[in-house]
Amino acid sequence: MKKWLTFILIAGLATAAKAQTAPDNSSPAADVLSLKQSSYDFGKIPQARPVTHVFEVKNTGKEVMRLDNVQASCGCTTPEWSREPIQPGATTTIKVGYNAALEGQFNKTVTIVYNNNQTKTIVISGTVYKAPTTSAPENASLTLLKH
């Protein structure tokens, strides 16, 4: 009986200690960056023709938020964003461009660093196909009509 009481007491203390170390979402470190969408699929896109998508970012916190850096996973992906502070409840955008050099599937990440050390990741994806070198084949009969 004593062993059971000791076990229950230790288990209760461990549970209480764990509950005290759980994150407090009301603290200043709580996530304040909200994305309307965290990924975008371009579908099928032609090779060597740049495409862009605009992601909407909202400050859901009670303090001013800053986007410190927005970094792409490779050089073929280029993010553009405002360095201006984002007021509580306000939104801003991150424009992500992609220029495909290779055919096939792609999946690229863009990491948003905000409020000095917090991060969030957005993803772009799609399939690149080889675009024709000309818009239409030459029509030899047009040359005959010109003479």
| Poorly predicted parts | 16-28
Could you tell me the CATH topology label of the domain at 32-129.
Immunoglobulin-like
DSSP E strands, number: 8
CATH architecture of the domain at 32-129: Sandwich
- Highest-level CATH class of the domain at 32-129: Mainly Beta
Structure in words:
The protein has a domain of 98 residues: Sandwich (Immunoglobulin-like), CATH 2.60.40. It has two helices and eight strands, in the order αββββββββα. The strands form two sheets. It has a four-stranded antiparallel sheet with strand order 1-3-6-5, with no helix packed on it. Strands 2-8-7-4 form a four-stranded mixed sheet, with no helix packed on it. The longest helix is centred in the first third of the chain and has 19 residues. The protein has 147 residues and is of the alpha+beta class. The N and C termini lie far apart (111 Å).
